[in-house]
Amino acid sequence: MKAARRRQWTSWVLALVCAGAAWGSVRVGLPLLVSVVAVLAAVAAAATGASFASRASRAAVGWRSERDTVAALTRANVPAVVYCGLMLGGGGDADLVVVSHPHSAHPRVFVVEVKTVWGRASVRGDQLCSNGRPLPHQPAAQVRRQREALARRGIVSQPVVVASRATLPRGGLSVSGIPVVTSAGLPAFVGSHPAPWSTTAVNALRSLAHVQDLT
What we know:
Blueprint: H1 2-27, H2 32-75, E1 80-87, E2 93-100, E3 108-124, E4 127-130, E5 133-134, H3 139-152, E6 158-167, E7 173-175, E8 178-181, H4 186-192, H5 201-206, E9 210-213
Parallel strand pairs: 3-6, 6-8
Antiparallel strand pairs: 1-2, 1-9, 2-3, 3-4, 4-5, 7-8
């Protein structure tokens, strides 16, 4: 985040310098082409700064949703190990992998894609929507790829989508057959859903990512 802010400030400073150069070139009578180039450079620099700021802001919002989801599991005293930010190669990165009852004979594995959703969540075809608008990056396809990537490592998992702060229909919601829950609803889902179990999951996952043991 700090690096993104530095890039943003640098871009805006560059934009101001270029804009000043453009104005100065007009004042001292330099050719019009020089002025136009300087103005275009200022516009490009400002756009770059805005792009960095936008990406940083989205990343911060997503990180907070993931943090809130882990906090919900912690508050509910769910006996689980949570693996955060698993890099799965061709499957992309998994926001969270939750292993419930990891020290039992039958630990159960959930691969979780977290989306920041406010307002009413609904499904249109195979798309998850927030207040009627499809999300820009569809979680069902993402979490399926993550499940397949885990399966290639011998880890069988239950995919689930977390729509962090959404209002869900009373009868529940699923997208492309994948359950959708809120951050607050994930603990109950993990505690009650008959997910696949694997005695090798904990050892196989431990080498891949940062671990938060909630047991």
